[in-house]
Amino acid sequence: MKGFLQKLFPTEKKEAVTVISGLPRSGTSMMMKMLDAGGISPLQDGIRTADPDNPKGYYEFERVKQMEKGDTAWMKDAQGKSVKIISALLKHMPRDYTYRVIFIRRDMAEILASQRKMLLRRGEDPDKMEDAKMAALFEKHLADVQGWLHEQPNISALYVHYSDVLADPVTYAQKINVFCGGNLNVEAMIGVVDPELYRNRQEKLKAL
Questions:
Q1: Residue 52 sits in which domain range?
Q2: Phi, psi of 100 (to 5 degrees)
Q3: Is the dihedral of CA 40, 43, 44, 45 positive or negative?
Q4: Distance CA 68, CA 53 (A)
Q5: pTM, entire model
Q6: Which listed residue, 6, 114, 161, 170, has the most CB atoms within 10 A of its CB?
Q7: Structure confidence at residue 205 (pLDDT)
Q8: Span of 42-51, 89-98, 195-204 with lowest mean pLDDT
Q9: Cα→Cα distances 111→5, 11, 105, 147, 149, Å
C-alpha cells in the first residue's frame, strides 16, 4: 500500500545543499571558488563584488543574512549548489533539507588581524573590543557550533584548516571531493588555490 501511494503521490527528492561555513575572514570565499571550479555551482547574487580585502570575490548571497529573521524560502534554490553561510547563522537553516557543511578553520590571530585590516579600510573602529576577549568569544562560539553540528541528523560536516589547504591543495581537494560524493574536478579545484595571495596577505597583516 505504501509503495502504491508513493507512486500515486511521488515525493520530491531533495538534493543536498553544500554549505561553506566558518568565522568571517576564515577563507570561505576560497573554498567557494574551489567548489565552483570543481563542478558545484554557487548560489550567489553578485551584490558584494571583489575588493582589496577579497580580490577573488566573495561568492555571497545576501538573503542568507536574513535567515535569523525567518527568510529561508530561498534554500530550495540552493539544492545541488553551494552557499556560504557564516557559522553564527548555521542554526537557522531549515531542518527539512540535507546539508554537507565544509567548515573552515583558520588561525585566530590571522582572523582577528584580517578583520582589523578590513575595518580600518572601511573607516570603522577596530578597537571596539580587545583581541584577547574577541578570540575567547570566537573559540567558545566555535565549540558550541561544532557540538551542534555533530548532533544534527541531516547534516554531515568536514572540518578543514585554511592554511592546510593552501599548503597541500592536492590532498584537501581529494578529501573534499570524497566528502561531496566523488564527482568533482579535483584538478580544477587545485588550480584555483593561490598560496601567493596568502603570503601577500600575511606580509600586509604584519605591517599593521
A1: 15-206
A2: -115, 115
A3: positive
A4: 26
A5: 0.81
A6: 114
A7: 43
A8: 195-204
A9: 53, 43, 10, 21, 22
